[in-house]
Amino acid sequence: MKQNTVRLIVALVIIILLVLAGRFGFTVVKIGYVEKVIKSETFDPVAYVNGIWSSKLIPAFNDKSVDLPTILVEIKPDAKGHVTKSELVPVAKQYGLITAGEADEFMVKGTGQVVSVDTSTNMGSMAIQLNGYSGPIKVNVYIGPIIPADDTSIRDAVGFIQFGDFQDQTQYGKVAVEINNRVIKDVVSPLDLKNIKGKTVTFEGAFTVRTFNLVVIDLSEINIVPIMITVEQ
Asked: Could you tell me the CATH number of the domain that includes residue 117?
């Protein structure tokens, strides 16, 4: 609240200065630019994500997530874990979403055993032996405490969070970061990660396959940002 008040004061000062500048002959910046600055400064990504988390994001995954084994059996990497972009296109069209930036986004669900937990970096993950899939693609689920800033899988996979709905790229990026923060807070933090190895987990989440300017893609493993994880007792 205090931060928003400060931003509002700053915006008002800018407007006053611009009015005075116009009166005394200085170069005047268009009011549309000022409005853009104000909107950018007052955008609250936390409030935005709070507004869609339970009402839109969670229901979207509950309704549209595809069984991960169904997707993975359609992807047939070579001995090095490589597939061609052309081989991925029909899979993405059937089960996912191809973005304007040439990335394949998938909303998925699955169940499997946690076979290892890697917390050697802040971008920790757990490897899952997925029920119903025995192929070569390794499945990882992020457990943080940090999800890579460039992983915008959940934001992009749902399809209803569009760049055009925001003032600029900064706001759009903040939404992805806040979604990932919320994942760590609400999805990962309640887990007993010290004792999760060997347990069976059920999850929903999203992963991205980046294809921009690529002909051959490394799909030896996928990294899923979870929006739900439950552990069998």
From this structure: 2.40.50.420
